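Side project, low priority. Logging it here so it doesn't get lost.
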Amino acid sequence: MRKVKAGGDPDLDLVEKSRAGDTAAFDELLSRHYRRTHALIFRLTDADRCDDMTQETFLLAYRNIDRFRGEAKFSTWLTRIAVNLCRSEWRKRKRRRENRLDDLPREAMIEKADANRKNGAAAMMEAEKGERIEREIASLPPKLRIAFTLRYVEGNSLGEVAAILGCREGTVRSRLFNARQILKVRLRDLVR
C-alpha cells in the first residue's frame, strides 16, 4: 500500500486494523467521520434519504476497505464514496422525474416558520435569505453543486476536491467559477 504524502493520514492505523478484521477500529472510523459525511449527504440530497445514504456510505467503505490504496486520505476516499452515492441517487430520481433535491419535509418547513415567527421579523428575513441561498445552491447543475459544496461548504482544498471528484484542479476551478457566476446572477437582489 502506498502511504499518504504531506502530513499523513491520521486514520491510516485504523484502516490497517480494519483490514485485519478489527471491527472496533472501523467503529472508530465511523464515529470520526459520521457527522461530516451525514452533513455532506444532507446538503447534496434530501432529508428523507440522508440517514440511509450515510449508512450505505459506511457499509460500502467497510466492504471495500481493502480497495483503499492510501493515495489520498481516508476522509477523501470516504467523501468520494458519498458523492458517488448522491450522483447515483440523482440519476434514479431523474429517471423517475423526481428531480427536486432541495425539498424539505413539510413538517420541517412548518417548524422553521414557527421558530422564525417567535424570533421576530429580522430573524425570519435572515432565515429566508439562508434558505434561498441553500435552494439556489441545490438548484445548480450536479457537477457545479458538488464542487461548490465540497469547496465552500465543507471547506476542502482544491486538491482535495479534485481527488474526491477524480478530475484536475483546473476542472474544479472552472466548475467553481461557473457556480459562483450562476449564484451571483440568481442572488443579485440579496447582494447590495
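Brief comment: The first helix runs from residue 12 to 19.
Revisit when time allows.
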